[in-house]
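User: Earlier you gave me the apo prediction for this protein. Now I'd like the version with guanosine-5'-triphosphate bound, so I can compare the two side by side. Same sequence as before, with the ligand SMILES added.
Assistant: Got it. Here's the input I'm using:
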Amino acid sequence: MATPFVPRAVFPLLDSVPRSYYLGHHAAGLAKMRTMLSQIDLIIECRDYRVPLTSHNPLFEESLAGRERMVVYTKKDLGRKGGEEDNKREALLRKWHHPSPVLFSDQHATRDIRRVLEHIKTANTTRNSLTGSHLMVVGMPNVGKSSLLNALRRVGVGKGKAAKTGDQPGVTRTIARSGVKIYDAAEEGTDGGSVYLMDTPGVFVPYVPDADHMLKLALCGSVKDTIIPPFTLADYLLFQINLYGPKVYKEYHPPTNNVTELLEAIARKNGRLGKGGVPDMEASALWLIQRWRDGKLGHFVLDDVTEEAVEKKLSHDQVAPSSLNQARKAHKEVQRARAKTRKSSAA
Ligand SMILES: Nc1nc2c(ncn2[C@@H]2O[C@H](COP(=O)(O)OP(=O)(O)OP(=O)(O)O)[C@@H](O)[C@H]2O)c(=O)[nH]1
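And here is the structure of the complex with guanosine-5'-triphosphate:
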């Protein structure tokens, strides 16, 4: 009888995975957001539904404190299975962010977008009806900020796309002079002014605590695909898929923990062969990753959201170095300590 498949319980901690992706336009964007804060009535913070804990950026807490906030978990369609587990997770996230409202959205689901709009309007009735309300959408790179802005505009004022979107991070790099109208009070005949939403560039955390965080964020597209080798990322994806359900790739290979075997099978089936019929592993790795990002290899959440995990995250953020220089220093210290350990064990 064949032995049952056992997925890997842990993924090896890889020292080679970079732990920072804090770019010039992230820092510049954040600095600009800070200067604009006094004109902003409400901040919409976007986080990725698939990584609710990992896509939390303490920089926003630190830099944009003191403003009313709403948290929107984007790309719900890619993470939600539609069961009790999802309800439990969502309840926990609501508790975590209380008293800020928490919403979950799929950019194409008009019902979700309408719900976000309703919350915005409720907050808006208490504001200045002459100048209107000015909102800012913030979040990690590629989390779906511009898409949310476009969806709110579509549902709110029935107009087309105003912000450029794309499947790689860094499409929005600057902040426009004025916001985009997403609600017209005169047209609707309501109290409170119209609502304008300002798009901002995605801002990455200065320094992620470990390789696992970086791999999750890279899988969700917060990091450019050139930063982590596709083979490593595909291996991490396979590790995650196997925990969820290894049958999703059954048309290519039976359940396996060996990414080389799976990528070779994909290359053969998709005809991605190089000279002499050698499987193109990189092309297959990128294809596998993209297929998951498109929601074609299962819908699941990469973070394990429990009371304990939320507590841990909160206490880590409180003690973790948040400034970039401190973060770099801490990273170098860790590297030095590792090198020292390696040297002494080699001696
Ligand atoms: N499936 C799904 N995809 C989404 C959703 N929202 C956004 N996306 C996709 O995610 C990718 C990134 O979306 P953007 O709106 O450009 O993300 P951003 O946060 O503005 O990105 P930056 O410019 O890096 O700050 C695009 O390919 C979108 O089509 C969603 O609700 N569901």
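For your comparison, keep in mind: The chain has a mean pLDDT of 89.
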